[in-house]
Structures are given as structure tokens and as C-alpha cells.
Design goal:
Length: 212
Amino acid sequence: MKEYQVVLIDKYQKINAEILDASLWEKANCLTDFSSPWKNDPISNIEFRALYDLENLYFNFRVFDTDIYIDQKDDSVDSIGNSDRVELFFRANDSLNPYYCLEMDTAARIMDFEAKPNKNFDFNWNWPKKDLEVQSSNQESSFTVEGRISLASLEALNLIQSNCIETGVFRAKFSKDENQNYQPTWISWVNPNTTEPNFHIASSFGKFILMK
């Protein structure tokens, strides 16, 4: 399995007005090896970073793309699911029974749900609000989605084992086709080796190693 090392920081360095101060993200390892195994078209560069302290796991996606599509008809699951977004999936083991999905668009709208094998999704399940925070911002050449997840909530779901969190890291990019309809390109950190796009499979996960 692919591995990503999550650097430990001192929680007292956090600035309350932001998820984390920009200077702290410089301490993080930068994950850039994303691909779309089902398309040959080039994809925008993605930089993913994660850090943790004794209370939270922090994450930061920076996507070098300014052609952003957001379905703004409402704030429903369908609307978020039809928008450019970034995603984190977490599992206790490769049975995927259950696993937990966190999908966030460029307006910081959140689609979080519990899932079981064969894309059995429970959208009535949500991360407790006190345990999850997400922010987004736009830059001249990119957009950023960042957030924090409490370690307590990850532990309660049995998602931290031996300082390891089995995680999928993904992006959905929507672009117009020849009929002017928006269609997704599916982008993943780990190539799940499937003939059709599928993140909801055991082979799409890697490991986040919480460094001491």
C-alpha cells in the first residue's frame, strides 16, 4: 500500500482564525502523485498535505485549477455530488464494513456519510459538527480546501490503529463534453486498478502514518 507520513506539530502553534497558519503547512510532506487511471487527458496539479497534533488531524488540498464547476441549485447531496470537489475516505480495514466518506466542494459544502460494500451509502450519518471543520478559498491560479477532524472522532470509529489511518484521497473534476453537459474526471492518489472509475473499493486506499 502507498504510504504518506503525517508530521506531528505542537497544538499551541495553531491560530484560531484559520485551520492552521500557512507557516505550519510548510512542515507537512507534500503529496502530489495523483492520476486519473481511466483517462489519458492531463490533469491539474494537486498538492495534498496533512498534519496532526494531540487533538486533530489537519488536511489541506491545493488544486491548481481555476475552471471550477459548482452545481448551485441547492445544498443537497446531489448538488455537491455534481460539483468539483475533493474527497477523503477512511476505513478500519479492507472489509470496508463500514467506511466513512468526506467529500467537500470548493464552497466548503460537505457531503459526509457512512458506507458499506457495494456502494451502500447512509447519507443520514454525519460527522459530529464539533469534530469536523472545513474552509475553502480561491487563489489566482488555484483553490484550497482545508480542514480538521478530531482524533477523538477517528478513534471512536476505530480508524486509528497502531498510529496508522487507512485513507483514500481523491478529486472529482467536472468539465463540459461535446454536448455541453458536465461530466466527471475521477482522480486518485492510489490507482485501484479497476476498468471503470471506482473509489469505493479496497484497492483505492493507502496508509497515513502518524509520525512521532
